[in-house]
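Example (one chain per record):
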Amino acid sequence: MSDTLPAAAPPRLRAARVSVAACFFINAVLYADLVPRLPEIKDRLDLTNASLGAALAALPLGALVSALASAALMRRFGSARVASFGLVALAAAVWGAAVAPSWWLLAGALFVAGALDAVVDVAQNAHGLRVQRAYDRSILNGFHGIWSIGAVAGGLIGSAAAGLGVPLGVHLGVVAAVFAVLALVAHRSMLPGTDQEEAAEDAVPAGGGGALRAVLPALAALGVLAACGAFVEDAGSSWSALYLRTDVGTGAATAGLGFVALSVAMTVGRLTGDRVVDRFGQRRVARVGGAVIAVGMGLALAVPSLATTLVGFALAGLGVATLVPAVYAAADDLPGLRHGVGLTLVNWLLRIGFLASPPLVGAIADASSLRVGLLLVVVAGVATLLCGRVLRATVSRDG
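Predicted structure:
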């Protein structure tokens, strides 16, 4: 175990763990608070559905443009500063989107928000992995579970504000101010020193073209696993409601339950996943998870009823729960690369997966049917089962 902390480390580690969890929560809350109020923004700016969609597309575009800069920013400022101060800037960008007086300024604010979100995402995971290495056991899944709780909390706050008629600028301004302050408070309890000090202790070389070429096969496999995670999660958010309405024949009131089933199961899996990973190892858990994804979605597609579909999406959510955290941990420990470099690259590949999944499934659905299009999720499960062997057997460095 590599640990630069003094003998009285446990209290400091616990405080750092709480601070990283706070970053994950804040990161999720900020944009989720805006989502329920998008219809008001659309009406205020007199936007069409297409123009609103084009503005929202600036969010993932900004993420793709900026994500690869994360490693360089962390080398310069450290993951703790990038995560916490990045959240302050993200809060301002989300508020800017809420009060934007034109389409161009709305799209610009969302582009900046997407760019900041990508950098913060890498930094908070990098610092979470630094804390995990000091703990010498799995804790990263819990952070991702806290993110899911934050997304729900933000959506509820935004919905309540909309229902009470709180002005957009006031609502998002208060949210931005409160959570920006919390992000700065969290920074005070993060691990001291720089990420480079830890990298030097672990004897991780700086990395260069030769080092990158040496780890390209493992990096490619991790990229495939990240894309598999994106395909499974996107199936719930983009296609579950349509599948339940058109292929299963449910009513509007129950069509959204597929997304709920996947999201709840994934959140539960993440909140309990650290104990499971410590008990069975992240490689085994990820590979079994791939099998569960394939079986679950296969059930939903082979027997299209409400009950089987909900069970299938829930199994898919449970199977994918620990996958992305495991991929992040493996990428951050690739030999020959500084901490943060592999994580940055895999995070970028994950975002490409989220960008590619909807049009790919949609194109197959148009050419055949949505049931055939969603077979890609079954393929993702099988690919996870096969490629999961590149993950470390255990999180502990003694394992």
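Caption: Residues 17 and 131 are 7 Å apart (CA to CA).
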